[in-house]
């Protein structure tokens, strides 16, 4: 793993984001248990951070840069539209590193919103996800994580953790809601709630 990561670090910066169809996106990631030197681990995190920023995205899992390791970075500046902030519960999420993350639902409430992925470039679809989850795992220092995450941050956590299980958001999506990131799709996807999309495209919201 050390040599594999070093090849990534010696390659393009930001790193190349693999797209749907690459087998690494469908494999279960290897748990991180110190396979890398401290310096290489820090450099990998920073490469992932720069790659996420450049995309731009609000999360990036290691498999998305071709590395089957249970590691993800997340950060969201939040939405500028007040209605989006309120409806999607999308406030600012500071930069975080998730090592060997896992989640389980808290309560039964699920919410449906449009979601995209850097590894399925140009498309979005509605995904019903748990509104709140219990996040466990560790941060980059090895400090244990055990907390409740709600709203859009919970969606990001679920999306990135799913990547580490070999799952893409389209596996959970309402495929009839699929839209392109341009034209009318961009308009539908930008609305705070996908109610208009559900009406005009003919699908039910969870």
UniProtKB/TrEMBL annotation:
SUPFAM superfamilies: Peptide deformylase
UniProt-listed Pfam families: Pep_deformylase
Binding site for Fe cation: 117, 159, 163
UniProtKB keywords: Hydrolase, Iron, Metal-binding, Protein biosynthesis
Enzyme class, UniProt record, top EC level: hydrolase
E.C. designation(s): 3.5.1.88
GO molecular function terms listed in the Swiss-Prot or TrEMBL record: metal ion binding; peptide deformylase activity
Cofactor, how bound (note): Binds 1 Fe(2+) ion.
Keyword Hydrolase (UniProt): yes
UniProt xrefs under Gene3D superfamilies: Peptide deformylase (3.90.45.10)
Cofactor(s) of this protein: Fe(2+)
InterPro entries hit by this protein: Peptide_deformylase (IPR023635), Peptide_deformylase_sf (IPR036821)
Superkingdom per UniProt: Bacteria
Example of a GO biological process term: translation
Active-site residues, as the UniProt record annotates them: 160
Transmembrane segments: none
Catalytic function, reaction form: N-terminal N-formyl-L-methionyl-[peptide] + H2O = N-terminal L-methionyl-[peptide] + formate
The keyword Ribonucleoprotein belongs to this UniProt entry's keyword annotation: no
The family this protein is said to belong to: Belongs to the polypeptide deformylase family.
Role played: Removes the formyl group from the N-terminal Met of newly synthesized proteins. Requires at least a dipeptide for an efficient rate of reaction. N-terminal L-methionine is a prerequisite for activity but the enzyme has broad specificity at other positions.
Annotated HAMAP family: Pep_deformylase
Protein name, entry field: Peptide deformylase
Organism: Pengzhenrongella frigida
């Amino acid at each position: 793993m050390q040599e594999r990561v070093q090849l990534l670090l010696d390659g393009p910066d930001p790193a190349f984001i693999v797209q749907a169809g690459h087998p690494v996106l469908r494999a279960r990631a290897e748990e991180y248990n110190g396979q890398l030197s401290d310096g290489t681990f820090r450099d990998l995190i920073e490469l992932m951070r720069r790659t996420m920023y450049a995309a731009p995205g609000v999360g990036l899992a290691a498999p998305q840069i071709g590395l089957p390791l249970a590691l993800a970075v997340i950060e969201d500046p939040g939405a500028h539209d007040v209605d989006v902030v309120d409806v999607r519960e999308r406030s600012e999420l500071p930069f975080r590193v998730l090592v060997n993350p896992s989640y389980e639902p808290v309560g039964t409430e699920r919410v449906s919103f449009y979601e995209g992925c850097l590894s399925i470039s140009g498309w979005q679809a509605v995904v019903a996800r748990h509104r709140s989850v219990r996040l466990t795992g560790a941060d980059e220092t090895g400090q244990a994580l055990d907390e409740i995450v709600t709203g859009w941050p919970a969606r990001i956590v679920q999306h990135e953790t799913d990547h580490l299980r070999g799952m893409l958001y389209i596996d959970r999506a309402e495929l009839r809601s699929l839209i392109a990131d341009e034209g009318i799709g961009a308009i539908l996807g930008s609305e705070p709630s996908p109610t208009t999309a559900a009406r005009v495209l003919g699908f039910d919201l969870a």
